[in-house]
Amino acid sequence: MSEQEELKKKLKKAAQTIISAGPMPFPLTDTFIKILEYYFTDEKELEFLKAFKIKKSLTMEQLQKKLKEWPEEEIDAMASKIAQKGFIFNQPSSKGLMVYRLMPIVMIGAFEYEFMRELPKSGPELDRVKAVAVLYDKLMGELVDSVQKNYDTFTGALGKQNPFDRTVPLRTTQDGTTIEIDETIGAEEQVLPAQTVEEIIKKYEDIAVGNCFCRQYRETLGEEFDIGIDAEVCFTFGKSARHVIQQGFGKRVTKEEAMKIMKRIEEAGLVHKAFHNKNDIMKDENSICNCHPAYCDAFRLWREGAFPILSSCFYLSQINQDACVGCGTCVEKCPVEAISLNGDDKAEVNEEQCIGCGVCAHFCPENAISLKGGQRRVFVPPPRLKT
After folding, report:
1. Distance between CA 314 and CA 148 in Å, rounded?
2. Counting runs of H as helices and runs of E as strands, what totals does the chain give?
3. Burial category of 68 from C-beta neighbours within 10 Å (exposed 0-12, middle 13-18, buried 19 and up)
4. 343-379, pLDDT tens digit by residue?
5. Helix (H) or strand (E) segment spanning residue 203
6. Do the beta carbons of residue 277 and residue 57 sit within 8 Å?
7. N or C: which terminus of the chain carries fewer CB neighbours within 10 A?
């Protein structure tokens, strides 16, 4: 076997390990291998990744048992090297013990970190990023094909999982009016996670902001977006923020700076999606994505048939039928296609599909939409494209 064949064999094993670290059922294809070839050319890196075949989070002591001839300094240096590529999360636990976690290629992993950072403007590195973006686009197409071929099995399994994110609603309309909220369940009756982005920001001393990876990825592919706000809208908190800052994926910001950016995000009507440690909404938030349906993969991959909408939601849109004029703005703006016009040309909400993001209320020119409180789990399967 030639050196090239041996390297490809090891890349294939690394790919299997990386796929098993994430929630998305990527097929093991040549495209996946080609993506890894842009990140890993050193067999020592692949040997390091092999240590995570069974457990995806390991301490230094556990790594030393698997990498028997590696000194501690070499293990730590290799972890740092691969962390800069987005495949290792190396931060101490709350007890101060350093933990090395293998990241998936997508959600949340190397793809997000690759396109979250400031991208090169020219030269060989820009060529590399463009080539990787094209391969990721092809990989997503292969994911769609795989999901559609195994649609019932895939949607059935994901339908049993905890939500991937939590929707935090917008609070004001375009003219600055506070969106009316009917809290059917009082705070004294239910313990709730932070219900506004301001509450979340106030909780953390370590905050980082980076570029929207979905938007930068799409722009690298040649798409253009004019939504009235720049790409710097992706927030991380606590341990995740420290990792993002250390690896150069984003920059540290103060609470005041974060609040100012969030105000611009609210004015643009982006969807706040909070992510929690271990997908448990009662644990700390680690990040907030601020999403636009034109480029956000959470929405695009759903529309394209690859992935469901699966979110914890605490609000539901309500439309005042007397105030609604049937202009269709909410129908156009809803990121999950949960609103339609009825026979009377009045807007109606599909309650099973609404994620309570408040975007419809934000853009409604008649202020005819309010939010109703109440925790829900929203699962919307991707459309079935093939029979």
Report:
1. 30
2. 15, 14
3. exposed
4. 999 999 999 999 999 999 999 999 999 999 999 999 9
5. none
6. no
7. C
CA distance 307 to 300: 9
Domain ranges of the chain: 3-149, 154-380
**Tokens of residue 372, six digits:** 């109703």
* β-pair partners for 370: 318
Q: How many CB atoms neighbour CB 138 within 10 A?
A: 16
State the Cα–Cα distance between residues 111 and 220, nearest whole angstrom: 13
Amino acid, single-letter form, for residue 220 = T
- Residue showing tokens 């299997």: 16
For 3-149, CATH gives 1.10.10
Contact between residue 13 and residue 50 where contact means Cβ atoms under 8 Å apart: yes
State pTM to two decimals: 0.93
In the DSSP assignment, the letter for residue 277 is G
Each residue of 309-343: pLDDT tens digit?
999 999 999 999 999 999 999 999 999 999 999 99
Cross-strand partners of 92:
98
